[in-house]
């Protein structure tokens, strides 16, 4: 069965790998914008069912690395890359694999909440089904909307106004709606690029709670500038650095607790303790 004729049942957990958290492995990933090399042979394992935080100063290549993890980098004109990205051992860049397949399995939540503002909350959640060619009955969609809004921590707040437009929600609610929309196609990995940087502290706390609730159900990779947030939400951390115009590399990675309390590299210690960046 091809993507184009997938049914909602096929996308449900237990029927296929859909929704089963996967390990993501970057192997010697390098990236360029034109002649400008911005990442140099970055390797990192992001374990299934865990939260991995990517930290480091501005411009060291964290967002570029994240975009490479779900094949968004190649959409940028003049962008190129080398290396491999393995999703449970299968290279998402293999010639035979479609870009839409990688995107469906590896979802993305952006810095600025980007719901479809005029579309209802209900339709926002199920929007990805059509785009991915997933068929669902009306009751299947109803169940999916409730499930995904619940998992994203938004159901109780919006269950009585599912026909209101996405743009009518607060920024924090919009971000949780975007998380629900990502979850609806049952990704195996969820990438989050500074998902709280446009939000107030209360909304930030709600997103962090949502991340905690989702961890274990989906592999999460999050870029954050907020060291307290990295310490609160992640199991593992990778510290990126691009020194004096050189391409970004990972200086150190490992369990978050060790990265914050017993880092091996003095540059990691300086960064996590706020001495630069
Ligand atoms: N679309 C683009 N075209 C050209 N260069 C780019 C593009 N996007 C990023 N870059 C360059 O790639 C390098 C890495 O940028 P990237 O956004 O990945 O870093 P970052 O660590 O995520 O930064 P920040 O924390 O500020 O978001 C920077 O030198 C940046 O200027």
Automatic annotation (TrEMBL):
All copies of domain ABC transporter, residue ranges: 24-272
SMART domains assigned: AAA
SUPFAM superfamilies according to UniProt: P-loop containing nucleoside triphosphate hydrolases (SSF52540)
Entry annotated with the keyword Transport: yes
Cited InterPro entries: AAA+_ATPase, ABC_transporter-like_ATP-bd, ABC_transporter-like_CS, P-loop_NTPase, PstB-like
Disordered: annotated segments: 1-20, 258-277
Alphabetical keyword list: ATP-binding, Nucleotide-binding, Translocase, Transport
Comp. bias regions, Low complexity: 1-12
UniProt GO molecular function: ATP binding
PANTHER family registered for this protein in UniProt: ABC TRANSPORTER I FAMILY MEMBER 17
Name under which the protein is recorded: Phosphate ABC transporter ATP-binding protein
Organism of this sequence: Streptomyces milbemycinicus
UniProt lineage: Bacteria, Bacillati, Actinomycetota, Actinomycetes, Kitasatosporales
């Amino acid at each position: 069965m091809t993507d184009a004729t997938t049914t909602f049942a096929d996308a449900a957990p237990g029927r296929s790998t859909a929704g089963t958290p996967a390990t993501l492995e970057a192997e010697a990933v390098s990236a360029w914008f034109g002649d400008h090399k911005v990442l140099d042979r970055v390797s990192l394992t992001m374990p299934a069912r865990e939260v991995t935080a990517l930290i480091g100063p501005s411009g060291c290549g964290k967002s570029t690395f994240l975009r490479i993890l779900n094949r968004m980098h190649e959409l940028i004109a003049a962008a190129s890359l080398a290396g491999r990205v393995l999703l449970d051992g299968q290279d998402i860049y293999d010639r035979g694999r479609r870009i839409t397949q990688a995107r469906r399995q590896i979802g993305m939540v952006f810095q600025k909440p980007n719901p479809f503002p005029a579309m209802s909350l209900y339709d926002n959640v199920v929007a990805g089904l059509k785009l991915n060619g997933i068929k669902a009955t009306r009751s299947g969609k109803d169940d999916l909307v409730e499930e995904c809004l619940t998992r994203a921590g938004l159901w109780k707040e919006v269950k009585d106004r599912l026909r209101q437009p996405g743009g009518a929600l607060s920024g924090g609610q919009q971000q949780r709606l975007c998380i629900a929309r990502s979850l609806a196609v049952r990704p195996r990995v969820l990438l989050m690029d500074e998902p709280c940087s446009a939000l107030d502290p209360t909304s930030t706390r709600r997103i962090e709670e949502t991340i905690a609730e989702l961890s274990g159900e989906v592999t999460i990779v999050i870029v954050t500038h907020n060291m307290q947030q990295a310490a609160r939400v992640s199991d593992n951390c990778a510290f990126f650095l691009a020194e004096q115009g050189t391409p970004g590399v990972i200086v150190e990675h490992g369990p978050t607790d060790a990265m914050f309390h017993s880092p091996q590299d003095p540059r990691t210690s300086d960064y996590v303790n706020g001495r630069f960046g």
